[in-house]
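Entry 12.
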Amino acid sequence: MVFQQGALFEWMSVRENVSFGRRMKGHSASQYTPNVDHLLDVVGLQDFKEKATYELSGGMQQRVALARCLANDPDVILMDEPLGALDALTREKMQGLVLDLWKETGKTIILITHSVEEALLLGQRLIVMAPRPGRIHKEYRLPFAERGVGADLREVKKSVGYRETRQEILLFLAALWIMTIAARAGVSGVNITKIHAAYSLGASRRQIMRHVIVPNSLPEIFTGARVAMGVCWGTVVAAELVAAQKGAGMMIIAASKFQLTDIVIMGIILIGVVGYTIDILMRKAENWLVPWKGRS
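Predicted 3D structure (tokens):
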């Protein structure tokens, strides 16, 4: 396992850290030394093998942790946000190293990350988890890891489908959190007296969930859905304004470069009208499906 902070033993040298697992298994120096030297060469630390780990930079320490894990020859490597504490440039180099090691060793790597961009770059199979309780909400099969082996990761980010997939996941995550909070608030806000009344009338737990808790929670859920739609639309607009290649965002950016004020204003108005229309439609759907909202 590779941890977020490396979890290296600072009283040992780089070589001793990497060989730790093999030594604890009782392997002799002649058995593990060639493998340890090879891994240090692979991660670019051959010249630092006798250094103490506290003399290394953050990126170098993570490379030691990765080499230490590989030295044990595991079938599966779990990486718990190993690059989260690194600066942007070091993180990008480490991402390339992880891809190269994955391709060279053929190991199965399970990478946990909060970075959507990192998940897209490094994962063949991307699983989006939902919180409390942890469960799988969506799964993606991605081609970007294969494209990134030995290549410039910045070029991979420009490849077909990358931006679209990133935007889709960001929208999904933005909506998921808001809907989860709204649903939780709706369920916790159910009047306990209504549940007791249903119990006294002979309703089972399943019937209470279906006929009491869910209907009582729907107003909060719809409010969350409306907020989620607003956040998603805002995310789309922000993404288009930052890195648009088509759509209203690109129109505004292109027009602003040539000081075409009328087109810029038209684009802003178009974005506002679409957002307002979405909100109106959500409110109408809410009034139609949940007429009892605010009338308890």
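Annotation: The chain has a mean pLDDT of 80. The chain has two domains: 14-159, 171-289.
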